[in-house]
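Open question from group meeting: does this chain pack into something compact, or does most of it stay loose? Before anyone orders reagents, we agreed to write out a predicted structure and look at it together. Recording both the input and the output here so the notebook holds the full record.
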Amino acid sequence: MPFYPAANNILQKRWNQRAYELHVKKKKAMKSGLDTKKPKSFIHLKVNLKRMQSEEERQASIDYENRILLAKLTNVLRSTGQLDNWNYDYELHSKSLNQMKMAEEREKINQENQKILKRLKERSSNFDADKWEDEYLMHNYYLDLKNSTTKNFELDVRGMDQEQALYFYGDDRHKRKVRAQYDKVSSNGDTASLAHSQAAVSEKSIKGDEMPNMVELKISKNVSRKKRRTVPRLPAIGMERKKEIERKKKEAAAKTAHYDDKDEAVKLFKASKGMGKPDVVVAQTLAKRKYSQRQQTKSKFEEQFDLNLEEELSAHLDDDYQHLVSALLATREDYDAEAIHGALKGEGPFTETLVEILSTRNNGALSSIKTAYARKYSKELEEDIKSEVKGQLRHLLISLTRGKRGELPVVDNDAAEKDAEQLKATQEDERWNSDSGKMADLLRTASWSHIVTVLHQYEKMTGKNTLDEMERLLGGDYRDAMSSLVKCLSDCPMFLAEQIHQNLQPSGDETTVMRIIIMRSEIDMALIRKAYKRLYGETLMDAVAKKLPLTSKRALVQMVVVHGAPEKPPSNPSQDKQQEADQKHAPSPSHPQHPKPLKRPPPKKDATIAPDNPLAKGNLKTSSKLGAAKSPRMERKADGNISQKGNQADQIEGSTVSLQKNGPDNL
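Structure tokens returned:
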């Protein structure tokens, strides 16, 4: 900068420009105190992308070759021993010129195999299990027959010493072979190891050669007696055996276990908690019990566990079993009231249900039903009938509901005949009305027995069938109700069998079948079973099991089997055992009775032994002092006891006396 200001502005500008250039020059010439150079690069830290790419490509090729090798090795291991495992696709691409012919041969072989398989499936087995069973029973029968008719030989031991007599009259020879050693009297006379009766015989025989008297023997009280042989019965074979097996199965199914309310409550409690199958437990407990036992089980369950049995079981059952449990545990009047209410509201058969319930209950039951109906639905039964039903049917149902009819079983035939005449005298159009006339009076107050007798008398007088006349004169629901009433009064089991059959059809009502089985199980189920079999040719159990579309049909079948079995009258147990024993030993009616086996006659009292008897000769050499051989028939058991045969022993004692008189010298 000059010390003095410039003379003009141009000069000042030049000076400033020159000063700036000098400043820039000095600035460039200055050295920095910081090292701002790039960091030094080392060779081993540099990334060579090309090299990495080449290595990755090489590794990829190696992995590809390894996968191919692994596939080949896997195919070799999976192969079943081909000749050239290294060329596994040889069979897929066969180079044979006979490929078409080979394919035809394979097709032919395949067709032949299919024909053989078809013949094998159509072929039935050659063996017959029933025939085998019959042959086995007949084989056992022949063996028993042989054993019962085999001749029983008795040995004559006159002239034999005591040891030989005991030997022949002891156990049979097969048992003696198994026995380790035969009990004998020792040489020094020791009889401690023998039984009491054997010791008595042995001590007596040691003192002398004579056999002891039978009265002196201390024989045990447990006398072994031979069983009386009986002729075996001819076994039941073929269809008879099958019928016997089926009968035993039915009897076993009809038998119920002993009832214990506490045990039943425990089983139902376990089933309600998931410990077991609830449907099976219900079928085995509630379905097999009577109405009073079911109510007792229900009370015991609530008392013991403080729970509601129906609610506990329903939690683990489907809808069908829930309805069944509700019906089994409900009281009779509640169940009838529910069925009547459902019929009035259009659920299930209308006239048949109402007539069946109202005509088969007595006055006390009808009163209980009306009370239960009013309690459950807050409405009187008669009022509900008046509001739901009209016409002659309403008067009929109200007459049946009143429950004021006579219940005496005795029928006055004269009064019944008089009522039948009045019924005949009534005009045809008004004869069967339920609101006025003689029939209306009978429906209100007369007993059912009296009404049935009146209808029978009417048929005798007119020669007409009551049902046919009702079908001709009446119509609508009233005709169905009157026909159901006459059928129910004439033959109630047959009427109920018809109702069960109708409701087992696809268009029927399953709850009606359940209600009839439950309500009539303890009353006339056996008669219903017979009527159903007579009408439709099959058992009620089979029909329910095949046609009823409910999961609870197993329990209903159990009820029919158990409660429908005919009850046997009580009898004396000892008398039953005696009859069974007599029947067991009685000869078969189809087989002639065999004669009794022949036995050797008893020896005569004055009989003597012949001199040429070999048994007598052998005994004379050994025992010269033997006067006579006393030979009672004795049987020796495993415990060594000797038993005496009464009549035969007396005969032998008599013969012994005669032999002692003669003596051995006289022989």
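Observations to bring back to the group:
The beta strands are 634-636, 642-644.
The mean pLDDT is 76.
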